[in-house]
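Hi R.,

Here's the chain you asked about this morning:
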Amino acid sequence: MSKLQFQNTNTDEFHGVWVYCEQRRGSLMSTDLELISEGRKLADELHTELCGVLLGDGVEHLAKELGGYGADRIYVCESPLLYDYTTDAHTKLICDLVAQYKPEILLFGATNIGRDLAPRCAARLHTGLCADCTHLDVDVATYVDFLRGNSTLDEKGIGEDKLHEKFGHDLKMTRPAFGGHLMATIVCPRFRPAMATVRPGVMTRAPFDADRAAKTEIVRPAFTLAEDDIRTEVVEVVKAAREMVDLLGADVIVSVGRGIAADVERGIALGQELADVLGGVLGGSRVSIDSGWLSADHQVGQTGKTVHPKLYIALGISGAIQHKAGMQDSGCIIAVNKNPSAPIFEIADYGITGDLFKVAPMMIEQFRAAREAKALTHNG
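And the predicted structure, written out as tokens:
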């Protein structure tokens, strides 16, 4: 594909929302289902189609599953050269497909592969890319509602009429900036497709619809891909055995923050014990990771992981904006903090003003007693 073959400044020629559907050794990523679900909303706002792009070898059987979460059509390209991911092969095929079909929006998950692939495609397509997004909008009214609830702008500062005039149907891509202390919204009004990588876990997965899955159209576009197109060779794939914290899949998360500074070792132990009693996992605020108390895979927040557990317990976390944005959609939030004015209490369902080193042991005792009583009742 050359620039002479692909002209992307006539934005009226571009239609449709596309999602790059990442698969690894024949298995879809959870991010794919989140992006398809979010892409469905964007496509509905634009009154257009939602399409997925699935590249691999022997992966067509995954297409219907993607359709069940909202895709109208899945473009499937299969080749032995696509069995292992390579930047060259995937970039070539995606750019060739974009040049042929001209989608208006192209979304990638902000995974290791997505962060490698998306910027290469954007450079070759000569278009903009907004990385690590946490919110997407097309409709201006929907975006303005988002601003009202998530910014300090007043109605005059929002300027809804001006937004309609300048960016009516452009994709509005919001991401954290300046270490998560500010949120920035970026648009790409002059070039298409508008491209974004989206942070895993921030978009809500829609329920699976078997009827929609059955109606999904599978398209096998003609493509050319030769060994000469690929400048790297995957010799071996070695998976690391390091145990990771599964914050995204946890129903219960107990997070610790600056409040454990007086006795870090005991604070972490209390958080872990409380998480164990509840069958959950241990998380942490940015301070706890930056201070070296916990590894980065424990971090909750816009600069960490955005989570949606059924129960979130915050121990000694004041509630900085970047942390709140990463957990405020939890089913139930319990906060423990010595400062009665801590921002975390603004979103907490239950707030306890007190020393976490005194409160956490009482919570552990009560939750353990309740669990044991439930077990006795069940056995009886």
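The two ends are 71 Å apart (CA to CA).

Let me know if you need anything else.
M.
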